[in-house]
Design goal:
Blueprint lengths: L5 H16 L4 H25 L10 H27 L6 H19 L6 H19 L4 H35 L1
Helix pairs in contact: 1-2, 1-6, 2-6, 3-4, 4-5, 5-6
């Protein structure tokens, strides 16, 4: 499930969902977070059922190294975004800018994993960041920026996870026939 990326997409999608639902207060927030817990659980249960237990053997050393490099750069950029936004007094831009960074990190990962489908979350997360930035530029409230970015990112990641599962299910049916 994590080898296929479904577990990562499901869990990080939930993180974005929490950001988006931070726009709500009181019982609505609690209900929305509870509902948001369902998506990763359903996705990971489906992954356990539909995907093979292993990823087909050890990942080659050069690809593991490249994967680590991409993720180290991503996390360094995220730290730089957070520090930069906090120091310049615009913490509301953390979400949109991190969405862009995370989206862009999917581009080299598409090559590392030989998975062109990873270009889809790249485009969707960059778009979510751009929309959040546009809402902020238009004078939208901070809560709306968080809502837009968080929910767009969560739904994008969960959608790609579901797409991965649908493709695995279709491949399994084709092999069975």
């Amino acid at each position: 499930m994590f080898t296929s990326g479904v577990g990562f997409l499901a869990c990080f999608g939930f993180g974005w969902w929490v950001l988006g639902t931070s726009a709500f207060d009181g019982p609505i927030r609690l209900i929305s977070i509870t509902v948001g817990c369902l998506a990763p659980v359903v996705l990971m249960l489906a992954a356990r059922r539909l995907l093979p237990a292993t990823g087909g053997g050890a990942f080659p050393a050069d690809r593991r190294r490249r994967f680590r490099q991409v993720n180290v750069v991503q996390w360094l950029l995220i730290v730089a975004v957070v520090v930069g936004c906090l120091r310049t007094g615009v913490p509301v831009l953390v979400g949109p800018l991190v969405a862009v960074v995370v989206g862009l990190h999917f581009l080299p990962l598409a090559a590392v994993f030989a998975q062109p489908r990873l270009r889809v979350p790249a485009a969707l997360l960059v778009a979510a960041g751009a929309v959040g930035g546009a809402v902020w530029c238009a004078g939208g409230p901070d809560a709306t920026v968080r809502l837009v970015v968080g929910l767009m990112c969560a739904l994008s990641l969960w959608g790609v996870a579901a797409w991965t599962l649908a493709a695995a299910s279709a491949a399994g049916r084709a092999v069975a026939e």
